[in-house]
Design a protein that fits this description.
Blueprint (H helix, E strand, L loop, with lengths): L6 E3 L3 E5 L2 E10 L5 E7 L8 E7 L2 H5 L7 H15 L2 E6 L22 H10 L4 E6 L13 E7 L11 H21 L3 E8 L4 E3 L11 H12 L3 E5 H7 L14 E5 L10 H4 L6 E4 L5 H9 L3 E4 L10 H10 L4 E4 L3 H10 L4 E6 L7 E2 L14 E10 L2 E9 L2
Parallel strand pairs: 5-6, 5-7, 7-8, 9-15, 9-16, 11-12, 11-15, 12-13, 13-14
Antiparallel strand pairs: 1-3, 2-3, 3-4, 4-6, 10-17, 16-19, 18-19
Bound molecules: NADP nicotinamide-adenine-dinucleotide phosphate (NAP).
Amino acid sequence: MSQIPELLRQGESRFASAWGEWRVIPFAHRERPRQHLALIRGDLPPSGDVLLGLHRRCPAGEILRAGTCRCGARLEATLAALAQAETGVLLYLDLPGTPAAAPLECPLSHSDPPLPEEAAFILRHLGIASVRLLSDPAEAAPPHLPGIAVTARVPLLLEAPPFPGDAALKARLAGLPEAARRLRRSQGRPLVTLTYAQSLDGSIAARPGHPLAISGPASQTFTHALRAVHDAILVGIGTVLADNPALTVRLVPGSHPRPVIMDTRLRLPAYARLLREGRRHPVVATSEQAPPERQAELEDLGATVLRLPVGPNGGIHLPALLARLAELGVAALMVEGGAQVITSFLNSRLVDQVVVTVAPILVGGVRVLDGYLPAAERRFPRLAGVAYYQVGEDLVLWGAPSWS
Ligand SMILES: NC(=O)c1ccc[n+]([C@@H]2O[C@H](COP(=O)([O-])OP(=O)(O)OC[C@H]3O[C@@H](n4cnc5c(N)ncnc54)[C@H](OP(=O)(O)O)[C@@H]3O)[C@@H](O)[C@H]2O)c1
């Protein structure tokens, strides 16, 4: 076995992120100015394989997504894979001897070894003897980790799968902005697309606070294409607090829709990605009673706070919100959940089209509808003129709700 490097464990902290909750343990080198991080997701099994991601710090790829460097995409794919598995370890390794003149250079162009001894030392310190290694399929053989059994290589999904080639679906997306402009002119409100991904049993999350990537890679690309043809994207504060989503367009070319958050008490936290990422000036729809100091704080972070009346059931009055959004230039609004928001929009009948992705998985988690829809004479809303598209392994249903 190779020599154990001089690493010192330095305490431990916990934090919640868009990729769930993590324990973070820094390891500092006694002699060199570098520090590695072990990021631990979930409870590690007492024996057996642990899912492992190995990553070397790369400012060029992680911050700037520079040139052909794949480090940023690889780090994101590694975090997503560990979040989905709900247990595993990411070793975030510092660079050995980055030339001071080129701190932003991608380490993959260096000939330095990928620190296998130091990585193996940390793993042994954590009591891990055997791993399944997340690896970029484009890379050569993974590093040999002294004293650690690598039982499998798990390919990382780095590229977004191409947008599904269904011409009818693409034509429908292309026609949406013009249809929305017409509806705004005639009705003084945006066109509302209600959309979510559900399992076969109608779940939209595993359990509260535990987001689950329900749809497959191809339909995630479709969801990004759907976002790209909307001016704004609306979620409830419940979804922000549970998932901290970014709601951006990343998998296809296009602009990010403006976020809209329904939040009667201004609970939106300052760390929310909707406030922090992309300077998108989110709209926060709140009540007259919300604390003024929170309004000032959110406005300092770039948000537009709209004080609106509340409806009969206590939430933001939806017709008032839609009228204000139309005034702000929103012609197409995508409503992406969660359960209470979906239920409110259906109850208010302010939905022009419904786009549901059904994935072939059984979850038994958070139900899509929060409570029963009031159905006079048992007439439940149905989708009319539904089109069915197979997108990868999922089924996308697109239709207009009808209450008659
Ligand atoms: N699979 C998917 O496609 C998908 C998409 C999105 C979310 N989700 C899941 O949905 C879950 C969150 O759903 P949720 O029902 O807890 O929260 P939610 O629907 O996102 O937010 C509900 C909250 O929004 C506020 N609100 C203000 N006005 C409202 C109105 N008119 N109608 C409804 N809500 C209004 C209320 O909080 P205040 O009283 O404080 O204002 C309410 O508690 C998460 O587990 C998430 O993972 C899944």
